[in-house]
Here is the input.
Amino acid sequence: MSRFGEDLEHPHRLHGGYQTPVSRLWQGPSVKTLNPHNLMWPIFITDDSNGMEEIKSLTGQYRVGVNKIVEYLRPHVENGLQSIMLFGVPGNNVKDATGSSAGQNEGLVVPAIKAIVKAYPDLFISCDVCLCAYTDHGHCGIFQFDGSIDNPASIHRLAEISLAYAKAGAHMVAPSDMMDGRILAIKDALAANGLDGKCMVLSYAAKFASAFYGPFRDAAKSAPGKGDRSGYQLPPGGRGLALRALDRDAEQGADMLMVKPGMPYLDVCRDAKERHPELPLAVYQVSGEFMMIHHAANAGGLALRPTVEETLVSFQRAGVDLIITYFTPQLLQWWQEDKK
Amino acid sequence: MSRFGEDLEHPHRLHGGYQTPVSRLWQGPSVKTLNPHNLMWPIFITDDSNGMEEIKSLTGQYRVGVNKIVEYLRPHVENGLQSIMLFGVPGNNVKDATGSSAGQNEGLVVPAIKAIVKAYPDLFISCDVCLCAYTDHGHCGIFQFDGSIDNPASIHRLAEISLAYAKAGAHMVAPSDMMDGRILAIKDALAANGLDGKCMVLSYAAKFASAFYGPFRDAAKSAPGKGDRSGYQLPPGGRGLALRALDRDAEQGADMLMVKPGMPYLDVCRDAKERHPELPLAVYQVSGEFMMIHHAANAGGLALRPTVEETLVSFQRAGVDLIITYFTPQLLQWWQEDKK
Amino acid sequence: MSRFGEDLEHPHRLHGGYQTPVSRLWQGPSVKTLNPHNLMWPIFITDDSNGMEEIKSLTGQYRVGVNKIVEYLRPHVENGLQSIMLFGVPGNNVKDATGSSAGQNEGLVVPAIKAIVKAYPDLFISCDVCLCAYTDHGHCGIFQFDGSIDNPASIHRLAEISLAYAKAGAHMVAPSDMMDGRILAIKDALAANGLDGKCMVLSYAAKFASAFYGPFRDAAKSAPGKGDRSGYQLPPGGRGLALRALDRDAEQGADMLMVKPGMPYLDVCRDAKERHPELPLAVYQVSGEFMMIHHAANAGGLALRPTVEETLVSFQRAGVDLIITYFTPQLLQWWQEDKK
Amino acid sequence: MSRFGEDLEHPHRLHGGYQTPVSRLWQGPSVKTLNPHNLMWPIFITDDSNGMEEIKSLTGQYRVGVNKIVEYLRPHVENGLQSIMLFGVPGNNVKDATGSSAGQNEGLVVPAIKAIVKAYPDLFISCDVCLCAYTDHGHCGIFQFDGSIDNPASIHRLAEISLAYAKAGAHMVAPSDMMDGRILAIKDALAANGLDGKCMVLSYAAKFASAFYGPFRDAAKSAPGKGDRSGYQLPPGGRGLALRALDRDAEQGADMLMVKPGMPYLDVCRDAKERHPELPLAVYQVSGEFMMIHHAANAGGLALRPTVEETLVSFQRAGVDLIITYFTPQLLQWWQEDKK
Amino acid sequence: MSRFGEDLEHPHRLHGGYQTPVSRLWQGPSVKTLNPHNLMWPIFITDDSNGMEEIKSLTGQYRVGVNKIVEYLRPHVENGLQSIMLFGVPGNNVKDATGSSAGQNEGLVVPAIKAIVKAYPDLFISCDVCLCAYTDHGHCGIFQFDGSIDNPASIHRLAEISLAYAKAGAHMVAPSDMMDGRILAIKDALAANGLDGKCMVLSYAAKFASAFYGPFRDAAKSAPGKGDRSGYQLPPGGRGLALRALDRDAEQGADMLMVKPGMPYLDVCRDAKERHPELPLAVYQVSGEFMMIHHAANAGGLALRPTVEETLVSFQRAGVDLIITYFTPQLLQWWQEDKK
Amino acid sequence: MSRFGEDLEHPHRLHGGYQTPVSRLWQGPSVKTLNPHNLMWPIFITDDSNGMEEIKSLTGQYRVGVNKIVEYLRPHVENGLQSIMLFGVPGNNVKDATGSSAGQNEGLVVPAIKAIVKAYPDLFISCDVCLCAYTDHGHCGIFQFDGSIDNPASIHRLAEISLAYAKAGAHMVAPSDMMDGRILAIKDALAANGLDGKCMVLSYAAKFASAFYGPFRDAAKSAPGKGDRSGYQLPPGGRGLALRALDRDAEQGADMLMVKPGMPYLDVCRDAKERHPELPLAVYQVSGEFMMIHHAANAGGLALRPTVEETLVSFQRAGVDLIITYFTPQLLQWWQEDKK
Ligand SMILES: [Zn+2]
Ligand SMILES: [Zn+2]
Ligand SMILES: [Zn+2]
Ligand SMILES: [Zn+2]
Ligand SMILES: [Zn+2]
Ligand SMILES: [Zn+2]
Here is the structure.
């Protein structure tokens, strides 16, 4: 057994490279490479202007009314919060076939943008753009008579909403609908109004029809009435479709690309970064990912902070620049405590 | 707004490709491409020969004694079970500094292999090979006087254990220790005994120091007494180290490569398949992944079967050929029911 | 000769990786990775509405009238048939210089689509689109006065036919003519009618002028009266032309690409998948391939089932997602019997 | 519909490139690029020294005794035959467990080599090297007591046979056994005798366990008595194993690589040429391929000559340099007739 | 001029992506991605044990004696210093032809390592390894009689020194000599003493014969007496040689690679990271780079802090993980002040 | 010790390749590959027609009036000067909101071009095109009412200026403004006047918001009054944005691409050449780079000539074809002296 030890080739010995905490940091991303600007926090705006309603299905998250939003954000801004993503949660009374209440001045998101811009001019505001929370059928597009998606009408509506948000001061609009061609339509609308240099477009380019969205649909009250979204969201195994969607949205002018959900699609993040190194890459750690870590931590099966941080480091390892996550305020809090 | 619709380039319209259930199947892997041979079930062998002890931290999994193992496997073999991975869970009384009880004829795994081979000659038996469950300090290697790993002694011991399992009839040994050079040592030992053409070696090549192992350590009673495994398991952000480990183990003769954990390292699976298309690729969906899905499903946050199947499809999309998962018997049961 | 055995490098020993039936399955595609959704069955529709005429040159295949088509398909649908491709075989009386009877409402294929959609709403219907069976000269395009192909007129006609099939309910049209630019023309026509999100386009992109089409021309009664197709089908050695055709059709919006014939062009399948991983890939196992296996099996030279399955596994190994083959009903039957 | 024609991008118009017979030749390989030196003819040597026995399962092929071999080859040499591959077909009386009669001076192949070298010094002689025709069990290697392959003993035997053929004057030996490490063993043996610069080694590197070998086993009387060759020949879907085998044999010194069978593995030919452009590539158009074309041609389904030539052009398109085919004398004859 | 504005393609408008401070951070590295663990500070150890001598040619840097080193480091460790690199500056009295005083127990660096390890066990200590400061001729290797480098003797000496530093507790040795094969020699020596898993090797792999080393030679008193280093350091235009050196040192087992100098070789950093993504990459911002920024800032031509930070961000943009820079204490100080 | 020396693999020995001055020249660019045509000299034209004002912040550079420019250039033209780049430095009295004096016939640059063309018809004249020196706010574009850039108006103005310079006889215009779409606007304007075949466009494509521009702003009197240029110049870490800018400008018709500043962005030069090998690549060694070398040389820290030449060789090694540098006359002088 003389072969053990001396015959092993040097590059085959790996241990030496990560024996100390410092040298481990040189091997790639780690908690030390996570910064507040890498995190974006999703915020739900309710139609009850004074509302502050806990979302049971999303631990620690609230549906907040426009009159309460500034106060709600304050402790987190003080902890270093740098960017948020707004979701409107309208009441059933304003829902209709075309989601016409989305983007209205008297609506939910537009006043919220204005209030936040005024209170926190340095806070980066992005807005989810979709129809599903505003339509009575709960789908992300407008239908034709035969029950199929009316793609031109849908992307026209999405462009109108995006324009309204940009005019109100949003720094970024993020269409999550997966209609064909919405990036082009939105960029056209912004450009026609001289706003395309002021409001970025983040494309939910590789958004999959996933089982991990469960808790969110409750939070945003956006589950479709009937049918599912498998006709416009991508099938989970659809790597080729994801590549085509990423390519298309880059070609149509997206300023940033997104993969969603996050952890179950880390390989698609890697694909996206390899194919589009010229654009920043976002990932959405969705409600199901968030909650299953919470449930497991509560049950004692997993340690919360190391698990959360490992998932974030994994996103960076896979090439992600911006992580949209419900864990944002918790992480800012932990990091604040570390400094003390 | 005349641009909507007619101006969209054809390759930019994606919806048409996945409007029907059949065409969705053409876009990539799906539940239809998952087969029983893609699944391997981890089995824990306890030192209580007649034992059948439920593992609370791992829903539905048991520690089984050698006298009960054949009966324990029967319903699953009848449901189509094709491969298993054995883990020994020895009692504290046999643990020592060098894990000398591992691979003993009168031990746990060797008699289990013999019993299973006899009862189910077509069942593929792989055996985890490590020291951590057999050492009194709970680490995966043997220590030198100064408290550092004695790498030559460790891989010598791992090769002895592997040889014992191969002689007993195992079709594959799978070293999970992350000592440098163990693949070469094991292949040398097998070759010197004419067994390298009969017993494959599956390398846990890219095994990360992860927070997702929590429940397993209880199942295998293998948590280290003090210290952690960050000196031999890879740091979570260590993509470069993972590439080096995969390259090394392929060069030293591994017959299959593994990434572990699974979902938080899907991008590393993609890296592994791109770099080593000539070898089959395995992934270990670890205890933390298994349990957080269970907890979330129990809490009503996620639907169990679609979530489980989505994770498996994601593995295939990322290039994985073999999935080691505690969900194996559940999946075989679901698929059996589908046929009725 | 001391070198034998111990000096062989481990990665150079391959046997160990495929000693058991299970481990062989991990090495790549096999009969276990073939699913009904990977198969598409070509069907010939005759102008005799009540016809059920065996095609002597294509063992076990029939020309079927529109009144008989539903019954003809029933046993195969029950065996798991998931997709078909329709070919019209008009009588000589309706043939003319421009193939004007193709795509007519009172024609062959349109009523057949309607009947099948109604009877089997889950069966995926694709339709071959070409002029050769409908023109009196038997060529795939329309001619100019000087005897050369009138490419604009030809692709206009092909687009009209495609539109007719899509309106009748076809899920996919598959132009096999090899005229330049037909994919763009067809997508334009579908888009102008709001059907491009509902009806896929499968391009016979790499279709070669092959000797293996012999039996088909009898089946479809589509042999050209004079001349051959070497001016529009690709020369067999034309790898560069095939790559250009695949690239073009992807750029013009094809939802799936095809290589035809199959086995003699497996290397082109590999080329196609390397170059267009973002699109599903089909192959047509043509009449000559089908019949030579039948003839050899009948003569006792080859075993039918293993030979057929090996050819299908080879398609998957070369990157193919969908196999169009006359063996479809036979395979479904064999697989049905395996379950018993 | 103004878009047809004028809007088509120039690179998308392909017809122009292959409108004339001459320009078609520029697009890639064709019958014009096939030369006699691209063809190698397999020849069977029987133990009946004066024998000339037609092989029913292989149309037009004979088992020929050593006394008749020179005359048998004469017309073909006159037609331009440039290379042959010899297979010995010994009688059952000399078969034993280790195939000891292979490579004997008084055997079949050694005297045949000597006779041919003397008669046709310019004819390139390669010799298949295997044990299956010489062992009483019909397998390609030697067995250990436990019924598994004794790899060191097997490759030792193969090296002895190769050396015998090289000493007799063979220009190339071609081991078809698929034992691990035989290329290294053979090169060692040749080098130790100063013959490695005189006798090439052609490795059957990517040889698959195929259904297309049926007729050959009758021709060479080499079917295994029991068991099959799936433990050493590659599984048909095993692309990764094929890449590893090609890599290994190139590393061990093979002068040429082979893929076998041919047409069903054209994608593997492409893989082989991409990965090893530094070596010439051979393909074996096996007995099943040969016979199914014959059967189909006899039945009138395919035209013999265009079909045969298309398969050969396909090999060249896929990167093949040398084609081993039973059609060799027929092709030489056709080409001879073309000249008249 | 109607084309302005509306005709510009969306992906061609870049401004929108970096209008806010937050979105600029998403576009790549910035001061926010620089962490203390990315910095390593070079320290000079003088033979005057109680010395504390300012180096005039290197603003703010000192030659420090072993008795003062612990105190010298204290304020910087308190500011977050994580790693240092030690250079010995021996007196002329101990210099000889073979640099025999380097690595002696009673020498400079060995006692300094021991003192620092004891005082700051978490501080990562790397040691420059070279002969030039210890030889009387001032070259980095040992000479043969004919005046050429004695490469074997030189790398033997370098391995001895490295071993001495590793035994004293250094976490990394960094040979800067550019002799062929020193990485292999050093790894052999470390491995033979069981230290290769404890002490990393950082190769100055791409070290160029540069004009930017001027100030250092004064600091380390290491200028060669006669001749220059162009026979072993790389010529500035030698990209090919640099790639070969990087490849070689990776193959011989380097744990990290270095490019030196830094800014004038940023393209070589990019080359190094593309070619060796599996290893961390270091850069040395050399004395000439350091001083010319200082001189320009003093003259009022450049603003110090933005210029320094821009150079560090540039290193990260080019793929660098670890920056060895004399600016380290200044940066830690600035960052500390930012927190207040 | 047997391993040192003799065990080193041959490709791992590098010294042999650069032992002589001649063989060093074979390894890549060097001072011998630098030619006068690789250098372009920036020239500042002042509004004092007879002016000859030394620029204190840029050693040895002058602001020269149009009446003096011919004489100023004469000694350098005689030394081999081949190309220059003109910058206008207007007086404050002509500055306004839109930079309307730029490109006027009675202005600075147009008469200078005419004078130089007449005096030195073989001297290649390029002209920087920007607004910052001509606007009263000192920004590179025109503003809208809300204080944001009016991109269409800005690129319209830039195109007018470019056209004026081209009409005056400039061989190249070089827009340095970083407005989106200016290359397209300029090429349109040139083409509309038949000048696009006569006047090249060199795009400052990858121009970063750098601290190294300090001295220039004094030279050109172009510092912005308030605000900075971070909204249109690229952030230093913005590799992705640089790739997009290079791609865009290549697509819009740039004849040459530029990276600016030089040394701190050498990796971007490498990126640019890899991505656009089809275009010549320029680099601007900016004022801060120029001055810090001067300051360090004056202080005795660096040797001037070797340092300057090393920076130029580094540009060539990184793929640069043309270097715009204030060192041009000094280099021409040195080279002239070398010839003596
Ligand atoms: Zn939606
Ligand atoms: Zn372990
Ligand atoms: Zn046709
Ligand atoms: Zn054989
Ligand atoms: Zn030195
Ligand atoms: Zn400017």
Q: What stands out?
A: Residues 79 and 335 of chain B are 9 Å apart (CA to CA). Chain B has a mean pLDDT of 93. Chain B touches chain A through 84 residues (CB under 8 Å).
